[in-house]
Amino acid sequence: MSKSLEKYVTKLSTKLNRVLPVYLAIPLIVGNKKVLPKREDTLFKLIEKEKVYTASTKIINIEVQKNETESKEKLIDKILKDKTNIFFLTSTHSDSALDHKDYQGKIYVDSKWQKKVKDKDLSLLIEMYITNNEVKTFQWVVDKPVWFVTRPNCRHYFKPLAVNEVLSTSVPKMIKKYDMTRKIGDYRLQTYAHSLAGKHAPTNVQAIIEQYQARYDFHMSLYNAKKSILIDNAIKKDLILIRKWKHLLLDKSK
Length: 254
What we know:
Oligomer: single chain
Shape: elongated
Structural class: mainly alpha
Order of helices and strands: HEEHHEEEHHHEHHEHHH
Strand content: 5-15%
Number of strands: 7
Radius of gyration: 25 Å
């Protein structure tokens, strides 16, 4: 269980333990008789009143997004440290967010590319290519103000390309060659596209599975306290997501 979810559960438990006895002491009128409410029914009513399902789901989503952003940033830092990575091609999606459409399907360059290229003739060719094609830096597009790729829920991905290929091949041909056009962006595809020889993606996916597993465990504890269609549907959704990501992790390991 994530620290933020654990903190929320602890705070919620403290509040319920304080409030529950008060509610249990208030008798209900059933027919002409006064009866004390059942503990399970009262507990679940309090859980609904506190909007526990909504709050826990929000916490998990924040954790997943935080992990996603941190994983992307670490991967980008590592890729940029590689002296062979100078140019980057971004994917293009038909369902792209409007504020990202202008930045997809383009070539970007490492802002520190000059430190990586020692050959003067090659350096001149790169400089001409950048000028003629108005190439922006990779750091600019993945950072403020665009946050391309790095923004939570952004499904675009990128691919480092060899200098010679970029200088001699059109962007449309490279996008077609590497199959980087999508009608619908896919988070799973992005997770693996961002891996280098498969070193990073499994770690990212495992972290996502753990977050959904924590949410599943929490929903199960609520369901065990009081069965509900709402919580039952939430559990089914958790299981679908866990199975989906585990299946993808298994495929990657083959």
